Each structure stands twice: as C-alpha cells, then as structure tokens.
Amino acid sequence: MTMTTTRISGTINGREVTTEVDNATLLLDLLRDLGLTGAKPSCEMEVCGACAVQLDGLPVSACTTLAIELDGRTVETVEGLAQSADALHPVQRAFLQKSAFQCGFCTPGMIMSAKALLEANPSPSRDDVVHWLEGSICRCTGYESIVEAVLEAAEEMRNG
Amino acid sequence: MQILSDFQLHRPASLDEAVQLRSELGDGAALYAGGTELLLALKMGVLEYEHLIDVKRIPGLNAIEVQGAALRIGATATHRDIETSPLVAEHVPALSKLARHVANVRVRAAGTLAGNLAFGEPHADPAALLVALGATVELLSSGGRRSLPVEQFAVGAYETELGEDELIEAVVVPLPTAQTRATYLKFQVLERPTVGVAAVARDGDAPTVVVGAVDEKPVRIEASDGVEDYVNAARDAVDPVDDLSGSAEYKRHLTGVIVRRALEALAA
Ligand code: FES
Ligand code: FES
What we know:
By secondary structure, chain A is α+β, with helices and mostly antiparallel strands.
C-alpha cells in the first residue's frame, strides 16, 4: 500500500531537517529512525512521559504527535542538550548530583519536561515542579530526588 | 509501535477554506487540532478517516479575547493557552484553574478546549463548568453561523450536535459579574476525572450546579434549598455505570461528596 506523504521542514536539536514523511508517521518514530532514541515508547497513550520532547519549547508526547507537526517548528530532544560529558545542561547535572534516576528509562523525558518548565518558569515553587511533572512516571526513584534535582537546576540556571 | 492507517492531510489557511473542505469531504474527514484524543483513537483503530483537516495553522483561530460581554476562546486555543491567559485569569479564574488541571502538561500543551468539546469524551473536565457558566459554541459551515449552548451541543458519549459540514469557531463564555462566584472541583485517581462538579452562583442567586464525567454528558442539578438539598438531588440525578474509575454506587456517593465540597468552597 502506498502511503500519502508530506514534505516537511523543521529544526531538530538546532539542525534544519527537510524530509518527506508518511502522514501517518508519529513524531516518536521519526526521531527514533533518525537515531534519536532518548525519547522512548512506553505507554503510547500520553500517560507516562517517557516519550516527552519539546515542540516549540513545550513538552509533548511524541508517541501521540504526528511527525508532520515538525513542519515549520522546532523539536528538542535530550540528545541536543550536551555535546560532551563535561558540557552537561544544568538539568542533566542536577539529575546526576541528586541521583534523580536509577534505571534511566524515564530520564530523557523527565529532563526535557523539566527543561521546558524552567524555560517557561525560571523560579518554580516545589508545588509548581510537582504539578508540572504529574504525568511523568518513574518506576524507580520515588520522585523526591527528581523534584529536588529540578529545583536545584532552577537555582543554578537563575544564578547563570 | 502502533500504526496509524494512511490519511490525506489538508491544511486550510483560512476558515473559509476549512469550511469548504468540511462540506466537500463530509464524514470522511476529521477535524484535527491538538490530536490528543483523535490520535489515540486512530492508533487504537477505533476511528479511521481518509482525511484529516488540520485547523491549527489557521491564523488567529487560537485567539482569546473579550468581545462585548463575553470571553471568546478561539477553537485552536490550547488548555495551556487558557491556563496562562491573563484575560481568562481576570474574568473567569475558575476556567484558568480548570485548564491548569486538565490531564497532564503535555496534553495541555497540545489539546484544545474546542477539540475537547467536539470529541465528546464524557470523562472530561471542561464541559461541566462551561455549562454552569452558560457558555456557547459558535459553529460555522458553508451555510452560515449558528450558536449553541454547550449544554445542547453535548449529546452523549462521543456524540455532539456538530454537523459533518461544520466546525467549531469559538467557545464563548459570558463574562461573569463581579459578584459571581464559580468553582470547579474534581476527584480523580486515573488519567481522567471520576467526578467533576461545577458550581456557579450569580449575584447571590441559588447556585447552578452541574456534574460532569459521571454520565455521558453534564448533568444539571435541580435544587434550591441549601447544600443538603443539592447533595441529595445530585445523588438522585446522576446515572453512573461501573467502570475502571469505580462502581456505580461508589460514583454516586462520590458525586454527593464533591457537590458538597464544591458548594462549601463557593460559600467560603
Ligand atoms: S509513551 Fe508517550 S506518554 Fe507514554
Ligand atoms: S529511573 Fe527508572 S523509571 Fe525512572
């Protein structure tokens, strides 16, 4: 069966991408086919956040977003944050410092969601962090260290 | 991964074009905005369309503005647009708060209020408050415009008055007076509300109470005689079914509890 396609141009992690995608392709599949496997399929129904990426700055579920949405827009994934291990993004550093992950499966989604929060609200309260991360599920850490890490990253980013 | 079936994508650049597509494609096409409900249904294969009409790129369709004595929320305004709109916060703070607690942050970033109403998922937040506030939807087709109260627009589970040649242009909320008190309170353990109760008291009148998420559409509670009266009337008025959120009996009980709390919050 031939699939109907659309030509799209957008930015992924700062790089211009022009490509022809099947209309029915999900953003998560497009990203993973490009080798960007940080965002993970898990629930595949917008519930868990393992697939979270930033679309024009806001977190979305790549599992339930069409790839065509990239057209004219900007997607950021965890792979775009650091060029090397000693140039981590403040959110990544804080996750390390606070041991905010164990198996790491949820971590790319958590980090992109947290980064989106701190870009929208540089001075979140603890409640703001908890509220923003509702719908980002971690089966390992118990969340406390994740919230701590986001608050720590907020402080670091404010102090520049 | 789940696989969607193929579809043709239409991206009208104006409302006129969108309306034109609607009349040409009829029920072979779905309107597509946030996709937060539609894509789930397409992925599960419970819905299938040959055409998707993406209305997101129509300029200005996401505007939120005060027009005359009403707040007009354009069809592609997302839950997050509403949550963060200073106009909504100023004029209908209960709606800001509701928007802040719809689903999760990713759904709020993509999903739209109009889409939520058009999809007609019973386990949703906005309809109950919109009904209690007397909100209407503005519907557009090649035949013209019409306006329907949200209360009439919602017909049942996944069923609305939206014609197959129509689209929602805006959700219109009459501006509450300064003395109006409004609240929306919900109980939720899963992804969607088990019970949601809207209570609106205009200028010292008896409150309008509407229960959402329990029945297939919002239920207006007819009572006038104090909190107990509303609680009992609400428990009688709803017609819950057993599902993942709990048994019918549990939901009936919960309805009474949340109605009581909503009215107490209104009085506080
Ligand atoms: S995999 Fe997308 S939200 Fe869970
Ligand atoms: S670290 Fe294992 S799921 Fe979050």
